[in-house]
Amino acid sequence: MSKKSSLNLRKFYIGVDVGGTSIKFGVFDGSKKFIDKFSVVTQFREKNAEKAIVAEMLAAIENYCDNNKYGVTKSKIAGIGFAIPGPVVNNQVLRAVNINWKKKYDIVKETKKRFGSKVNVKVYNDANAAALGEYKETLKGKYKSICLMTLGTAVGIGIIINGKLIEGKSGVAGELSHLKVDFSEDALKCNCGNTGCLETVTGGRGIANVYNKMYNTNIAHDAQEVIRHAKEGDEKALVALEKSLDYLSMVISIIMLVYEPEIILIGGGVSNEGTFITDIIMKHLKEKVYITNTFPKIIIAKLKNQAGFYGAVSEL
Ligand SMILES: [Zn+2]
């Protein structure tokens, strides 16, 4: 951590990343330098989840303001950015089904009520915020067109082209994790209601799903397990992993031919195995697209589970 004296402690920014199990907060100084983090457990709510979750997030920030060693107080907070797991348009969350957030709710208004009208507030879809985080913090202007694929328990995809986040008319652009890629009759049901979405066959759960379905078993519990066995030379695990990453490379080939990004970043738990994963993805991508030599670079994302809150403050 940088020395306190080199920090800009006159004002602060807070980034908030809302996940299904925890809400992560990143604290940044007046120059957007990361200084601290904390988290709270995401409570599952039956009713009015949106209202309860927003109140809980704001209360957690207030509590932090009452007790921290950097001099962060409510009046010194210049901006708060939120990353939410659902479609967001014009700073408004439309819904976030994984946390039972069912209707539009004005986070900006609620935040200004508690932190004053001058506080700057931005709201993003979490995959998009993570892409912004890597774009600004890790790549630092080296590339203008990027795509981040977060292969966690869920799969999140954020696309930035020529420096601009691709959101679409209702915040769904880039949500290729819900593109149907498995057309078999027994394709698995996805959280979105469809069957055979990319998310059901790749990422933390999906890789295990492919293994279990392929060998008619239920022994694979998560992707890490399958990947570890594949790496150790287990042929069955390798075949399942290749099939899963083949689905993923199909979606990457679509992104490549529509947007031609310079670089694809792979994040989430699956990315822990580094080039073992990216080499397989690249091999399958090259099987699918012959017409161009301008393949994107495929690298491992750096910010891990902090990408969301980095991105949430990046445009404040
Ligand atoms: Zn789906």
CATH architecture field of the largest domain: 2-Layer Sandwich
Give the H and E element order: EEEHEEEHEHEEEHHHHEHEH
Tell me the helix content: 25-40%
Oligomer: single chain
Ranges where pLDDT stays below 50 over 5 or more residues in a row are: none
CATH superfamily of the largest domain: ATPase, nucleotide binding domain
Describe the strand arrangement of the main beta sheet, using strand numbers: 3-2-1-4-7
What ligand molecules are bound, each kind once?
Answer: zinc ion
Q: Mind summarizing the main beta sheet?
A: 5 strands, mixed
Q: What is the highest CATH level, the class of the largest domain?
A: Alpha Beta
Globular, elongated, flat, extended or rod-shaped: what is the shape? Answer: globular
Computed over alpha carbons, the radius of gyration is: 20 Å
Mean pLDDT: 93
CATH topology of the largest domain: Nucleotidyltransferase, domain 5
Strand coverage percent: 15-25%
Number of E-state strands: 12
Category by helix and strand content: alpha/beta
The number of helical segments is 9
Instruction: Give the N-terminus to C-terminus distance in angstroms.
Output: 22 Å
Structurally, how many domains make up the residues?
2
